[in-house]
Amino acid sequence: MNEVSIGELFVRLAVSLGVVVAIMAAAAWLLKRVAAGGFAAGGRQRAGRPVRIEVLARQSLGRRSSVALVRAGKRGLLLGVTDQYVTLLAETSADDLVVPESMIPEPPRTVTPLGGPLVTGPAWRGFTDTLRERTVRRS
Fold this sequence. Notes:
It contains two helices and four strands. The protein has helices at 6-35, 121-135; strands at residues 53-60, 65-72, 75-82, 86-93. It has a four-stranded antiparallel sheet, with no helix packed on it. The chain is flat, with a radius of gyration of 28 Å.
């Protein structure tokens, strides 16, 4: 049998580890480029700016389905969305899109309609103390 010194094993281990780290770094760099839109399908670099996509409105139809109005660049898309599929229901130009006021979500309120804070400090503390009392395990 061949005798292998500990130094030779250590060098072999260091080189192997270096190769693995280099492969991981190259894969991370490549994934970052692809995720940022640096390459289009087929591996060619895409010319121009990335397409801006924004969800203008979304309406739930059931537990796991909804309809979404999306602006993608200069196109307006009405999409049916479920857990498994996204289906194009209609397409129009972005200039034709008018979102009704009722479809625009209201920003979360941090104060009551009268102008006071939504939850006061002592009331919140009392609520958390009550919850803590209910969840304490007694022997």
